[in-house]
Amino acid sequence: MVTFSQYIKNHRRTKQFRSSTPHFEGSPFKNATCLRVGTVKPKKPNSAQRKITKVCLTNGRNLIAYIPGMGHRLQKNNEVMVRGGRVPDLPGVRYHIMRFKKDFTTPENFERKKRRSKYGIKDLYRLRETLNRRQTNRTNRTIQHKAIKKIGKKKRKKLYIRLFENFLRLKSK
To answer: Where are the domains of the chain?
Structure first.
């Protein structure tokens, strides 16, 4: 509670906004160059080898960024794109590297089923379906073209005229 004298002096200050990604200077992502790639051990209750890299942003600032996912082939002088987002068990690591941007195009060494958008992975089931559909459409078209080519020129012309007349008849109804 503010005392009366403090109230008179008008010492109430609004809390200043503190950005969670101060090196970005307001932008959501920044391009960067890897300076060093390595591993770090996390804070106390956890135990692992977290992959990190020291990067130099395009604005000249250096920072440490986390390499998400399983498996990478990042090296010194690789171009990467960095986004905000801290790693809870690594102190001082406030940034993530984005997969499938710039030089960081290495796919993970397993098939990811959940949280695919975080790691830039397509839905393999849907992808397979669309590829199969395209393949069947392509084969159907080639069969139709071959069947039309077998017919003579005069018959083909009559067939197209009949199809066009049917189309006009359907359109007029």
So the answer is: 22-121, 125-172
